[in-house]
């Protein structure tokens, strides 16, 4: 059964056509003119409009245009006494489903209505299929984003593309429950900071439901969608902001996208963990030489001859004696503790790496040779004053030699910079030890093997 709006200025015609359609099982609402038809379309939901072409104070073409502009999913059947090709062609080109010429027999009207309703159903199914395909494709695109930094923006774009929302914001949830705002789109710039702050407070209260937005929001309705991965872990939230009540389809669409966002976050975390295994030293959990090499490549590309940076090359003094006296297990524990001392003397933006054996290299970003010398001295003093493995009852004392080389002061390429820092460190090995030297091209070359210099 369909809901049909019947428009005809003749009372008899309304009664006759209304009976035809009612007998066919449809619900009919009959009006006499254009004004009443517009009012009915605004107040009620219809599947089909059947209208006479010639009406007082307007015509059926006006109703056809109005319906297609305001309610494009409603089909229109035109009825007229004019047996001419021109009006029929104009009606069909304007979107009419059928064009019938009076007198209209009951079976003809019922058949025309049936075809129009079938067309409407097929169009709805086609539109639903397109939406479903677009939704699946959007979900698959999210799963291909493996860079966590880009994932938030990709998710926001997907939500706004497929959900009838004015704005979208995405937060992720860390392993310890901390919130991280990833991306936002559609929020006026003057409101972004306040919205971000207020919503983070609400999300900490975990309110995954639809509700009227608070008075300070520039939107009427907020829809909070949790992003839950296949292991039922809450990975974050999407907040969709609307100017009108939530449409029926929004929740299912947003939930589907949120599930794919959660799965993408899960994949990104797994990849980060795998990368950690590739780039971290197994013993000290500092970065390894492979990661340092890539970090230096990026730093050279970023510096572009302008921004200075430095590296420190460290070697522990007489570490071989520790292994010979206390065994390699104690030596390994000492290397781990030395790594912690190094990390405590550097910033988060710096890169501390184990070069190999008892050698470490530190990349100091945005630091010239003067600043690097100060950091090197801080590390040298910290190691000299530290009692290693005191909890295990050893309380070992240790010193180090440190070589300093800076870009662009000492070298303009990666290999030379590392080599000069290594030579400066080795100069300390040949002299007093427990010392810091700044690079100089005049330093002796580093021998191929220096096991006796440990």
List the helices and strands and how they pair.
Elements: E1 3-7, H1 11-23, E2 27-31, H2 34-43, E3 48-52, E4 54-55, E5 58-59, H3 60-70, E6 75-80, H4 85-93, E7 98-101, H5 106-144, H6 148-162, E8 167-173, E9 179-185, H7 189-204, E10 210-212, E11 221-228, E12 234-242, H8 250-279, H9 289-303, E13 309-316, H10 319-326, H11 328-344, E14 351-356, E15 359-364, H12 369-385, E16 400-407, H13 414-430, E17 436-438
Helix pairs in contact: 2-3, 5-6, 5-8, 6-8, 10-11
Brief overview, please?
With 454 residues, this protein is of the alpha/beta class. It has helices at residues 11-23, 34-43, 60-70, 85-93, 106-144, 148-162, 189-204, 250-279, 289-303, 319-326, 328-344, 369-385, 414-430, and strands at 3-7, 27-31, 48-52, 54-55, 58-59, 75-80, 98-101, 167-173, 179-185, 210-212, 221-228, 234-242, 309-316, 351-356, 359-364, 400-407, 436-438. The chain folds into three domains: 3-125, Rossmann fold, CATH 3.40.50; 145-277, GAF domain (Beta-Lactamase, 2-Layer Sandwich); 289-453, 2-Layer Sandwich (Alpha-Beta Plaits).
Element string (H = helix, E = strand): EHEHEEEHEHEHHEEHEEEHHEHHEEHEHE
| Relative helix content | 40-55%
| Rg, alpha carbons | 37 Å
CATH architecture of the largest domain: 2-Layer Sandwich
Shape: rod-shaped
- Give the CATH level 1 class of the largest domain: Alpha Beta
CATH fold name of the largest domain: Alpha-Beta Plaits
What is the average of the pLDDT values?
Answer: 89
Q: Major beta sheet, specifics?
A: 5 strands, parallel
Which strands sit side by side, in order, in the main sheet?
2-1-3-6-7
Strand content: 15-25%
- Pick out the low-confidence regions: none
């Amino acid at each position: 059964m369909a809901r049909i709006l019947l428009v005809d200025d003749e009372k008899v015609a309304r009664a006759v056509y209304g009976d035809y359609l009612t007998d066919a099982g449809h619900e009919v609402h009959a009006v006499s003119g254009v004004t009443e038809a517009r009012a009915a379309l605004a107040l009620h939901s219809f599947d089909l409009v059947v209208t006479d072409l010639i009406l007082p104070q307007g015509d059926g073409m006006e109703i056809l245009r109005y319906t297609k502009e305001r309610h494009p999913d409603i089909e229109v059947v035109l009825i007229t006494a004019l047996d001419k090709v021109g009006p029929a062609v104009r009606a069909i080109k304007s979107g009419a489903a059928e064009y019938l010429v009076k007198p209209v027999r009951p079976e003809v009207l019922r058949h025309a209505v049936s075809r129009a309703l079938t067309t409407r159903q097929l169009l709805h199914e086609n539109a639903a299929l397109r939406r479903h395909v677009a939704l699946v494709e959007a979900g698959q695109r999210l799963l291909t984003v493996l860079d966590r930094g880009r994932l938030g923006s990709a998710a926001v774009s997907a939500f706004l593309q497929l959900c009838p929302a004015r704005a979208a914001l995405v937060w992720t949830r860390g392993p310890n429950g901390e919130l991280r705002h990833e991306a936002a789109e559609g929020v006026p710039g003057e409101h972004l900071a306040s919205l971000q702050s207020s919503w983070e407070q609400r999300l900490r209260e975990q309110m995954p439901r639809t509700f009227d937005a608070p008075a300070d929001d520039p939107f009427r309705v907020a829809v909070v969608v949790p992003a839950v991965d296949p292991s039922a872990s809450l990975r974050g939230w999407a907040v969709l902001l609307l100017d009108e009540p939530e449409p029926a389809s929004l929740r299912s669409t947003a939930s589907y996208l949120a599930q794919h966002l959660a799965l993408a976050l899960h994949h990104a975390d797994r990849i980060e963990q795998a990368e950690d295994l590739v780039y971290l030293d197994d013993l000290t959990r500092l970065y390894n030489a492979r990661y340092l090499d890539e970090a230096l490549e990026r730093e050279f590309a970023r510096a572009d001859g302008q921004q200075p940076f430095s590296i420190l090359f460290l070697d522990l003094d007489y570490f071989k004696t520790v292994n010979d006296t206390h065994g390699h297990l104690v030596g390994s524990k000492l290397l781990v503790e030395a790594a912690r001392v190094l990390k405590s003397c550097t910033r988060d933006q710096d890169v501390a790496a184990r070069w190999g054996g008892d050698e470490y290299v530190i990349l100091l970003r945005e630091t010239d040779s003067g600043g690097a010398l100060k950091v090197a001295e801080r590390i040298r003093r910290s190691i000299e004053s530290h009692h290693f493995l005191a909890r295990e009852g050893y309380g070992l004392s240790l010193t180090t030699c440190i070589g300093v080389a800076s870009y662009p002061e000492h070298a303009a390429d990666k290999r030379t910079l590392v080599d000069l820092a290594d030579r400066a460190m080795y100069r300390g090995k040949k002299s007093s030890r427990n010392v810091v030297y700044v690079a100089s091209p005049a330093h002796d070359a580093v021998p191929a093997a220096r096991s006796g210099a440990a």
